Amino acid sequence: MFVLAASATFAQSRKALRINEVMVQNESSIVDDYGEHHGWVELFNSNFAPLEISSVFITNDPNNPKKYPVPLGDVNTKIAKRQHVVFFADGQPDKGTFHMNFVLEPGKDNWIGVYDADGTTLIDEVTIPASLVKDNSYARTVDGAGEWSVRDGGKAYITPSSANVIRDGNKKIEEFANRDENGFGMTIMAMCIVFSALLVLCLSFYAIGKIGATVSRLNKMNASGVDKKEVDKKSVTHDSGEEIAAIVMALHDHFNAHDTENTILTINKVKRAYSPWSSKIYGLRELPNRR
Q: What CATH number has the domain bearing residue 93?
């Protein structure tokens, strides 16, 4: 059951693999690790966890789903969460893991599919239109989702190995800067958060200390064989400090009694700090001795 559950989880994660962007005719876009221009296919991991894509199949022929198996044993086939990887369609798989054994043909509709390790489960597919010209890509509007559209490198960026939506700013930060130009609001918020956290910590430690003291007292009572009910009764019937003080004052007034025995001599030891700076034995000079 554990193996089946793990296999099902792994299969579900593989379904998050998406074809994200494709370029059929590459003359001035990115180059491979040999410095050459080739058509390329970008895959995207839409999971919020790393995804191992080795043993999946990439193909341009629906009748041959196992055309290019992604090799095992390459550490680079593990895609980080929400990240991309590019495969070059150069027909030269002997150059490395990311060089597929087929090429994309300009001027024709190119179909690309990604199959799971079983070779029958289609994970994702796309058909690139024949109208796509050189150095243009066919990409999703949003990474891993959205509609497909043509990108010419102008306002519509061509983004191999990066996000399809390039954000050059943060609207929330800009709006906050407009509303709080001098940063007073940010300062007050930060101080409130810090002191609130300190207050919560203080209360937590106080409560933990009280609970710990109570548990320790109960453990001691259990170890000594003392019943909690008896302790509660004793604490109720015990005289308070005010009552004891009233009794002592009454005894003193009526019987001239006191709580200190006049026949006992009390000696308190007074400790004085000793400083060698005033001692003559540590003088800087010694008088010469005549012999």
A: 2.60.40.1260
